[in-house]
Amino acid sequence: MSELNILGVPRNRKFSPNHIGNDDAIFSLTAKKLEKLGCKVTISFEDDFLKNENIAEQKIFTMARQKEVVKKLQTLEANGTQIINSAFGIENCFRTNLTYALSQNNIPVAESYIVPTNYTGDDVFDAITGKGYWIKRGDFHAIHKEDVSFAASREEAREILREYALRDIPDAVISKHLIGDLVKFYGVSGTDFFFWFYPYDNNHHKYVEYQNINGDSHYYSFDADRLKQVATAAAEAVGIDIYGGDAIVGKDGDFRIIDLNDWPSFAPCRDQAAEHIAGMLYEKFTKSN
Question: What is 111-176's CATH number?
Fold first, then answer.
C-alpha cells in the first residue's frame, strides 16, 4: 500500500478559550500516532489553509472552527475530499444549529428556545420555569466568557441579549437552568472509547465562576451506559466522529445534554483518546482508498 498523505488543520488559538495548550496537545499527539501508523502528515494552520489555493490532499483531519475555513472545507468535502470531523458536522455544532439538531432527533436536552437578540417578549421567559436562565450566543461557539452567561432574572437575560446585539450576534439560545451534577464526556465514533468525569473535581472547566452557579458535585447515581448511548446518538445527529460534551444529572438519575462540541481537548484522557482517534482516522481513510 502506498503511503497515505493526510493534511491536518488544527484549531486557531482564539477558538480555544482557556484550553489552548490542551487543544494543541491532542491534535499533535494524534498526528504523531498517525505517523506511527505509516501516514505522511502535513500540518496547515487555519490562516495558511485559507491562503492555499491548491490543496492536494484528499484526506483531512481537522479541529478548525473559523467560519471561512469551515466553508472552504465544506467545498472540498462536497467535491470528494474526505474530512474528519466533517465540516458540515462542525457547522452543525454552532449553538443554534446544535439546538435544532438535538431537539429534532429526540436527544434529551435542557428546555431551550432560539430567539433573535432583539427579542423583547415574555413568552420564552414565561415558558421556562425554575431558577434562572442560560443565555448562549447562537451563531457560533463560545469565544468569550460572556458568550455563555447565566441570568438570574429575565431583566438580566434581556441585558445579555442587548449586549449580544451590540456585538452583531444575530440570535441566541435561552435555556433552562438545570439543578444537578455537571458531567463532562468524550467519545470517538466507531470505537469503544468513552470517558466521563466530574470536571469540577478535576479543576477542568473554562470559567471557574460557573461552579459557583452550578454548585459542587453530589455524585447522583445514573446510568453511564445510557449516557454513552445518548452521547453517541447526539454526535450522529450533528454528523461528527470526534466529540465531547456536557450533561446535567439530576437527583433522580435522569440527565440532559447541555452542550456538544466537535473535537474537544480530551485533556484528562489524552493519550488513550489520541490512540483511538488516530486508529479511527486511519481505518476510515484507508477504507475509502
Answer: 3.30.1490.20
Kindly provide the b/e burial profile for residues 203-224, where b requires at least 16 CB atoms within 10 angstroms of the residue's own CB. eebeeeebeeebeebeebebee
Total-model pTM: 0.93
Q: Which residue has the higher pLDDT, 190 or 143?
A: 190
Q: By CB neighbour count within 10 A (0-12 exposed, 13-18 middle, 19+ buried), where does 63 fall?
A: buried
Q: Where are the domains of the chain?
A: 4-89+269-287, 111-176, 181-266
Is the peptide bond between 54 and the residue preceding it cis, with omega within 30 degrees of 0?
Answer: no
181-266: CATH topology is D-amino Acid Aminotransferase; Chain A, domain 1 (3.30.470)
Residue written as grid cell 458568550: 147
User: 4-89+269-287: which CATH topology?
Assistant: Rossmann fold (3.40.50)
Q: What is the pLDDT of residues 91-116, one digit of tens each?
A: 999 999 999 999 999 999 999 999 99
Cβ-contact 258, 248 below 8 angstroms? yes
Is pLDDT above 80 for 204? no
Which conformational region is residue 224 in: left (phi greater than 0), alpha (psi within -120 to 50 degrees), or beta? alpha
The arrangement of strands across the sheet holding 59-62 comes to 39-43, 4-9, 59-62, 82-84
For residues 242 and 190, give the distance between their C-alpha atoms in angstroms, rounded to a whole number: 10
